[in-house]
Design goal:
It contains 21 helices and 14 strands. The strands form six sheets. A three-stranded parallel beta sheet has the order 1-2-3. A three-stranded antiparallel beta sheet has the order 4-5-8. A two-stranded antiparallel ribbon has the order 6-7. It starts with 6 loop residues before the first strand and ends in a 6-residue tail after the last helix. Helix 18 packs across helix 20. The longest helix is centred in the first third of the chain and has 16 residues. By secondary structure, the protein is mostly helical. It is elongated, with a radius of gyration of 33 Å. The structure holds one RNA strand.
Length: about 525
RNA sequence: GGCCCGUUCGUCUAGGGGUUAGGACAUCAGAUUUUCAUUCUGGUAACAGGGGUUCGAUUCCCCUACGGGCUACCA
């Protein structure tokens, strides 16, 4: 068993867009698989027909693609030896296992109606107990354990609706070793007789999950902590199905918590605090409501993945920036934390900033280009690359570039008033005029030449650089901050700079001051 | 309520029977070219509480508190 090929799966339900917590689960599965040269499988668990949401499956697939965590097999990624990977398409497979359990005395038919179940719950709760369908209460319900063989036969023949429940033993210790949490021991009396097979002919999660993991030869089940309470039930199923020898190892991941307050991170938190909780933008097919996504917000997938990987896992050192390949190298389940992690939108931005810095100006230009084309900016690529090189030190996202540096493409429409009122005075005005004249005379327009001219003008006018530096920036860019000024001027070019200076002089009647 | 899991700066975390308990984000202060939303330097800031075990506990054990999860013919 220990030398089986590592096979893990990500098994989401298509009930809506994939939450970033889900992406992290997929990521850890992916990293683990790659680390051990194993397989990563995408299985769609669509056994609940009522909660099915149109487009959710496509969304999951697209999200994984964008994140660069692509499965080797699975829905949307090509069939392997274990197709199909959609549980609704595997429907005929499950019943035999439920029946096998009945045959072995580990499961039974139950014919109770919703009303009967409700009644039982009320009765027990009224008596101060914890209502559950278990080894005690099952004795008073309508099932193949209490009904005679003939009655059961008749009911089945008459197509009476039924479910198949697991016959959980009365008082048995169930132990499982979680790769992250160590030994977890639960007494079987705490587990109820879970429905394995529903009246609609579909298996429930518990049955389908165990059967498919077995059939798909899954070696490690890496999933969210919300599954920990039902893990003993799954252990029981492996045992009763006779699959104990090949039971996968379990690893239950800590949950992602909301940034403030308490509780699981939810879509509402994102709306409330202004950050996406989904990798991609999602439009609800019913309400039409749009939820923002990391991709649309301008995050790089590798930055997003890096951030997610570090939320609940950490390599041994102090390093925080890891490429996908480095994550694969470093990843191990025993370094996954036990406690839930509060999500931090600020740090997420920081990660993106780090990745923005690491991108080449050429790469950034390519990303930015569509926006510029849309704005009808006609400039050659070479120029844009240079602009990107200056802007990348100032931004967290490419989509901030335009606001930060539109002056590279057009003269400022307005000037920063606070700088004008603070710095524009008769003395600085004479400087601007002189500086403009000197620039006109200059044959060279490199950053260093501009700087030399600037400094000599300062000397001539006997004025400190700090008194006029910002004013010059505003006169040309309109704004008070930005990349190295002389680099900016050199890039904008002599003609344009002089035109803008002249316009500025005219507008503020610098001559007349 | 019951059961399960957890608890190191505000947040993500490193560490681990003896440490000045380390890093990052955030925050604050200082410095730098000249502007800063850059960069650099520095500061504030944590082992939930109580019992054990031990020469010694933040680290191991127990209890309490707090937090989270589960408690469906949902996954």
């Amino acid at each position: 068993m220990s030398n089986r090929r590592v096979r893990v799966r990500f098994a989401p339900s298509p009930t809506g867009p994939l939450h970033m917590g889900g992406v992290r689960t997929a990521l850890y599965n992916y990293l683990f698989a790659k680390k051990h040269n194993g397989d990563f499988i995408l299985r769609i668990e669509d056994t609940d027909q009522e909660r099915f949401v149109k487009g959710a499956e496509e969304y999951i697939i697209e999200s994984l693609k964008w994140c660069g965590i692509e499965p080797n097999e699975g829905v949307g990624f090509g069939d392997g030896a274990h197709a199909p990977y959609r549980q609704s398409e595997r429907k005929p497979l499950y019943k035999q296992y439920a029946e096998q359990l009945i045959k072995n005395g580990h499961a039974y038919y139950a014919f109770d109606t919703k009303e009967e179940l409700e009644e039982m719950r009320k009765r027990i709760e009224a008596a101060g107990g914890n209502a559950s369908y278990n080894s005690i209460t099952r004795q008073n319900m309508r099932n193949s354990l209490t009904l005679s063989e003939d009655e059961v036969k008749k009911l089945l023949e008459n197509k009476a609706p039924y479910v198949i429940r697991l016959k959980v033993p009365r008082n048995e210790e169930i132990k499982l070793q979680d790769l992250i949490r160590g030994w977890v021991v639960v007494n079987s009396s705490q587990i109820d007789d879970k429905v394995l097979f529903k009246a609609d002919g579909m298996p429930t999660y518990h049955l389908a999950n165990v059967v498919d993991d077995y059939l798909m030869q899954i070696t490690h089940v890496i999933r969210g902590e919300e599954w920990l309470p039902s893990a003993p039930l799954h252990v029981l199923l492996y045992k009763y199905l006779g699959w104990e020898e090949v039971m996968p190892q379990f690893a239950h991941l800590p949950l992602l918590l909301k940034p403030d307050g308490n509780g699981k991170l939810s879509k509402r938190d994102g709306d409330r605090l202004g950050f996406p909780v989904f990798p991609l933008q999602w439009t609800d097919p019913v309400s039409g409501e749009i939820s923002s996504g990391y991709r649309e917000r301008g995050y790089f997938p590798d930055a997003f993945i890096n951030m997610l990987a570090l939320l609940g896992w950490h390599a041994s050192g102090n390093r925080e920036i890891f490429s996908k390949e480095e994550l694969i190298q470093e990843f191990s389940l025993d370094r996954v934390n036990k406690a839930g992690a509060k999500f931090d939108p600020e740090k997420t931005k920081w990660f993106n900033q780090q990745y923005l810095r690491k991108r080449s100006p050429e790469q950034l230009a390519e990303i930015w280009m569509p926006e510029l084309q849309q704005k009808n900016i006609k400039t050659d690529t070479n120029y844009i690359v240079k602009v990107c090189a200056l802007l990348q030190e100032k931004a967290c996202f490419v989509n901030e570039f335009w606001d930060l540096g539109k002056y590279f493409f057009e003269a400022p429409g307005q000037y920063d008033d606070s700088v004008i009122s603070k710095k524009l005075n008769p003395q600085s005005a004479t400087f601007i005029k002189l500086f403009t004249e000197e620039l006109i005379k200059s044959t060279d327009f490199s950053a260093s030449t501009i700087e030399t001219i600037f400094k000599s003008c300062c000397e001539t006018r006997n004025i400190k650089t700090g008194e006029v530096m910002q004013l010059v920036r505003v006169s040309i860019t309109g704004v008070s901050g930005g990349p190295a000024l002389f680099e900016v001027l050199a890039l904008i070019g002599k003609n344009e700079v002089i035109n803008r200076l002249k316009h500025f002089i005219e507008k503020y009647q610098v001559n007349g001051l």
